[in-house]
Design brief:
- The protein has 448 residues and is of the alpha+beta class.
- It folds into two domains: 162 residues, 3-Layer(aba) Sandwich (Creatine Amidinohydrolase, Chain A, domain 1), CATH 3.40.350; 254 residues, Creatine Amidinohydrolase (Alpha-Beta Complex).
- 30% of the residues lie in helices and 23% in strands.
- A hairpin with a 4-residue loop joins β17 and β18.
- The longest helix is centred in the first third of the chain and has 26 residues.
- It starts with a helix and ends in a 9-residue tail after the last strand.
- 39% of the residues are buried.
């Protein structure tokens, strides 16, 4: 009886304020279902759109190509030995072959096409498969502008060229556009999961920025950071970066200078009257969130945040609106950045925009819309030559500088939310912050 009860407990999902975190086995089943759909439905479309009929993804164990990490089944935590994936698209037959030049089948989707006893040399077996299909293109993962599409290492590239007959060398091309599209494009089912993932992220922040965690005058910003890390671990999830928590306050109580992104104090005691900010993201089901929100610590007898901070948050929301309204299919990241900054400045705001793709990775592949230290545009990087595509997700990340006379200083309203760009334009995956969180939450007391 005890064994049966224990087994039952293993499959009970963790409930997180209306959302369920699946046990490992159910996560694996769901991941493999999604991956099969991506291979069979999404990949043929992307290969057609990028005019690639053969795509080789080559990687070795513990030195994985960023692309292959998104293609492995849930039970494969790494590549095995040298793993070579071959995808061949026959548009006329409307077929997609998914082969592994490896000793094993790779999950349910990719069939092993190498019998070492018949052909001892792995590279020669790959050449045989290429010759049988005679592709128009042989796309490989190398790229100057897209780090995630540059996963083919020199050793594997050299060995491939040494084995490949010279007549095929001219067919080799970069898989850059296909690799980026594969990484950035989300399916409808993935977006349902994304909504739940962002909801969980918001819930964790709301709890962290509450009297459950913060006791003004005692709790430090580092305390909140480590509470967030522990919370995520206890839920069976992971953070994809170490969170940050920082405060801004009146010039009477702090140094008025701005800190750089890497130079913020790591441990400040949170006090009444502080504007508290966090940067936090989690990983679940191979998707990532990245969120920045703000809270205000009420002073004694205060029941609402000061109007000047409420208005400052509205200015941050206005910058978000200028950015998302300029997200138009086909525009490059630099074009979106330039237009959005100009519009916001014309409205009297002092913006900085550094929005990045979000999805399979936290800093993912796709359209980069500025960087915090490159407000004039991104050059020699993935925002320069890559257009905005539909069915993609972004961390709508930015700030606006606001002068606060009551504090005798400028502050930054720093915001970040997951946004989805689809056929109908932009929408937030699970809403955005339009009101400051209050510490402690205001309670209504009734009675005589």
């Amino acid at each position: 009886m005890k064994i049966k009860l224990f087994a039952l407990l293993l499959v009970v999902p963790i409930i997180v304020i209306g959302q369920q975190i699946l046990p490992e086995r159910e996560r694996a089943e769901l991941l493999d279902e999604i991956l099969e759909e991506r291979f069979n439905v999404l990949l043929p479309k992307l290969m057609d759109q990028t005019n690639i009929d053969m795509w080789l993804v080559i990687s070795r164990e513990y030195n994985e190509d960023p692309v292959i990490k998104t293609m492995l089944p849930a039970t494969w935590l790494n590549a095995r030995r040298r793993t070579i994936l071959l995808f061949f698209r026959d548009k006329a037959k409307n077929s997609i072959e998914k082969l592994a030049v490896a000793r094993y089948n790779i999950g349910k989707s990719i069939e092993s096409a190498w019998d070492k006893e018949k052909q001892p040399n792995q590279w020669q077996r790959l050449v045989e498969l290429i010759e049988e299909r005679n592709p128009k293109t042989i796309a490989l993962n190398y790229s100057t502008d897209h780090n995630i599409a540059d996963g083919l290492v020199k050793t594997d590239y050299d060995e491939l060229l040494a084995a490949l007959p010279k007549k095929y060398h001219s067919k080799i091309s970069s898989a850059e556009q296909l690799a980026v599209r594969w990484i950035e494009t989300r399916t409808e089912r993935e977006m349902v999961i994304y909504n739940q993932l962002v909801d969980v992220t918001h819930d964790i922040i709301a709890e962290a920025f509450s009297e459950k965690v913060i006791t003004p005058g005692y709790t430090t910003t580092a305390d909140v950071v480590w509470w967030m890390r522990q919370k995520v671990t206890d839920m069976g999830l992971e953070t994809w970066f170490h969170p940050t928590v920082d405060v801004q306050r009146s010039s009477e109580n702090s140094d008025t200078k701005f800190y750089s992104f890497s130079g913020k104090p790591e441990d400040s005691v949170i006090m009444p009257g502080d504007l508290v900010h966090c940067d936090f993201g989690i990983t679940y089901l191979r998707l990532n969130t990245d969120c920045q929100e703000l809270a205000y610590v009420l002073k004694p007898n205060e029941r609402v945040a000061p109007k000047f901070l409420v208005d400052a948050l509205k200015d941050g929301n206005r910058v978000q609106d200028f950015l998302t309204s300029n997200m138009v299919k086909g525009r490059t990241g630099n074009e979106i950045l330039s237009k959005s900054l100009a519009d916001a400045k014309a409205a009297g705001l002092r913006p900085a925009i550094y929005t990045h793709p979000l999805g399979s990775y936290g800093h993912s592949a796709g359209t980069t819309i500025g960087m915090w230290d490159s407000q004039g545009g991104v050059f020699k990087d993935d925002g320069e030559n890559y257009p905005l595509n539909t069915n993609t997700v972004y961390a709508i990340e930015l700030n606006t500088t606001v002068t606060i006379p009551e504090w005798n200083r400028d502050i930054r309203i720093m915001l970040e939310e997951a946004g989805f760009y689809g056929e109908n334009g932009h929408r937030y995956v699970n809403g955005r912050q339009t009101e400051l969180l209050l510490i402690p939450r205001v309670k209504t007391h009734q009675g005589n």
